[in-house]
Design brief:
33% of the residues lie in helices and 14% in strands. By secondary structure, it is an alpha/beta fold. The chain has 2 domains: 130 residues, no CATH class; 140 residues, Rossmann fold (3-Layer(aba) Sandwich), CATH 3.40.50. Strands 7-6-5-8-9-10 form a 6-stranded parallel sheet, with helices on both faces. A 4-stranded parallel sheet has the order 2-1-4-3, with helices on one face. Strand 6, helix 9 and strand 7 form a beta-alpha-beta unit. The N and C termini lie far apart (62 Å). The mean pLDDT is 90.
Length: 285
């Protein structure tokens, strides 16, 4: 009864990008090695993410707490099985290779991937198509229609983090640093100067107030998506991506789209170990 189960373990404070690491590894073990995957609980009320501020509060429920972003996968065991199998022994694994080695050692093992165990893509690169297809399978139909509307012509994708769970650029505070808004403006101007005249679509946890300077750039628009998953999958279809190198959300957009991706050298993508990412320095002043 308690064999060949796989599940993703989440922390309540984990955002979409961090959750996708453990979900993806669980999904791969499920699809490639015939394990039964327990449906994850995506919805997670995160008080601090709201009270710290710097975000668009009107969309926090579906963009930060992930309410109604996903539909259930019919091949998964319902999430209540976390309680049904609470007495089962699960082997924590860091990545796909470790999980496969555990299966070889014990063919009846149960596998668990934790949300904070490994935040790079080295073991996921060969599974890119499977992961994106699996995400689309659990995407709401209304969201798919929205994504298709924004996939008809090339665009430059921009992901800006404004929430105060990231510390301001150049701050002496301890924490993950935001990419300076002026870096995005300078980089967009650089791309325009070099012939990339496609529309620029901004995906952000902030609103018009936080993004005012960037939105003043010609042919630049803030995406009016209803959910964080819509934001992510639209962004993954960009021709070029300007992202926040400290954001796993930016990293996932880059991974799923495999497009040329840039961030400031002060907030590098290097720790995510993605081959399509580059750092570029600009004096923001």
């Amino acid at each position: 009864m308690y064999k060949n189960l796989v599940k993703a373990e989440y922390c309540r404070n984990a955002g979409l990008g961090n959750k996708l690491f453990s979900w993806s590894r669980s999904k791969i073990i499920s699809s490639e090695h015939a394990f039964r995957m327990i449906e994850p609980i995506w919805f997670s009320p995160r008080g601090a993410a709201i009270t710290r501020g710097g975000i668009d509060y009107a969309k926090a429920l579906r963009k930060i707490w992930l309410f109604r972003n996903f539909k259930s996968a019919i091949q998964h065991l319902p999430f209540c099985y976390n309680y049904v199998y609470s007495n089962a022994s699960f082997q924590p694994c860091t990545d796909i290779d470790e999980a496969i080695n555990n299966v070889k050692t014990n063919p009846e093992v149960n596998i668990m991937f934790r949300w904070n165990a490994k935040h790079d893509f080295t073991d996921l690169l060969t599974y890119r198509k499977i992961i994106k297809a699996s995400l689309l399978q659990i995407t709401l139909e209304s969201s798919k229609q929205f994504i298709e509307l924004h996939n008809k012509s090339p665009f430059i994708g921009i992901n800006v983090r404004t929430g105060k769970d990231f510390v301001p650029s150049g701050s002496r505070l301890v924490g993950y640093e935001q990419t300076d808004l002026k870096w995005y403006i300078n980089m967009l101007r650089f791309l325009r100067k070099n012939g990339n005249n496609e529309p620029a679509i901004i995906v952000s946890d902030g609103g018009y107030k936080q993004l005012d300077l960037l939105l003043k750039e010609p042919n630049t628009h803030l995406l009016n998506a209803a959910t964080a998953l819509e934001d992510l999958l639209v962004l993954s279809n960009a021709k070029i991506l300007l992202g926040c190198g400290n954001s796993s959300f930016s990293a996932w957009a880059s991974f799923l789209g495999n497009m040329q991706t840039y961030s400031s050298d002060l907030t590098s993508f290097a720790h995510f170990k993605l081959p399509n990412t580059f750092d570029r320095s600009f004096d923001p002043y």
